[in-house]
Amino acid sequence: MIRKERLVVGHRPDGSSISLPIITVRGDGDKPNVFMGLTAHGDEITGHQSLWYLLDHLNEMRIKGLLKIAALINTEGFNYSIRGVPLSTIDMNRIYPGDGNGSIFERVAAKIWGMASKSDFVIDVHSAGLSIPFVLIHPAEPLIRDFMEEIAYSSGLTVLYNYDRDLYERMGLERSLSGTSVRNGVPALTLELPGFAGIDPTGAKAGFIALKNMLIEIGVFEGSKEAIDFTPVIKERGLKRIRVRSREAGLLQYEKWLGSKVKEGDIIARVRSLFGEIIEEVVAPQDGYILQVNGYYRTFTGSVVATLAVRS
Ligand SMILES: [Zn+2]
Questions:
Q1: What's residue 163's pLDDT?
Q2: Number of compact structural domains in the chain
Q3: Using omega within 30 degrees of 0 as the cis cutoff, is the peptide bond preceding 32 cis?
Q4: How far is ligand 1, taken at its centre, from the CA of residue 40, in Å?
Q5: Do 154 and 85 fall within a single domain?
Q6: I want to staple 280 with a disulfide (CB 3.0 to 4.6 A). Which of 11, 36, 271, 290 is the partner?
Q7: How far apart are the CA of 31 and the centre of ligand 1, in A?
Q8: DSSP state, 165?
């Protein structure tokens, strides 16, 4: 059974309602119960095409548990294709558990958290710009971490631990949906799909298969898992993500591309001035793989040029 409804959280000054599109897929029973959120960042929409595929393929699977999907979290940023919220510095994925009596955005977060906290597993779907698709594991106690790892690896995608603790905290990731879930004992994973501003069709297909595989492993669906062989997947286990920054500013000319293996000292990208001169060679600080590059191809002093997957 599929139910589609809009959960009204509040209103805009013009009187139109700010509502969350909620899809409930219910099978034989209520367990296991998975909550899935999409587009907490308004410009990250590849997951929607993965969701379309998932809904189109439901009849091929036996549905055993319950899947509740918030098809849009950042209602405002989505309409204008921006990560955050217009006229605000709020990041919708850094304000959990929200506040039911707070601002409209804190109320949205509180509604989302109300659903997520009651579930057995949370999957938060994002896009990571020019990247390969990957599944992120947030820091957690060993018991819950082992379970999350098992589900993450079942996705068929690259699996990574998050940034080192100090950067994780500095970025406020403890207050993300996945971070908050894990801190409260609800296993959660963040699915990062490719997609720079729009939808990446290959990433969407990878996302669909990864979601289906994880939902089978969790036990919401009964069906057969599929391998992902049409986009780079890093099979090595025990990797985390790190950022590589430029010292100089300018345009970026990449020498290594998504999914490729790099050795310590390999040139990832050259920074060129507007006169065409090479002013810096940005090198890999350690062995790893290229996970994500800067889709703007422009760097300020200290901007992130690439994200690498390295041994944790
Ligand atoms: Zn995001």
A1: 82
A2: 2
A3: yes
A4: 6
A5: yes
A6: 271
A7: 28
A8: H
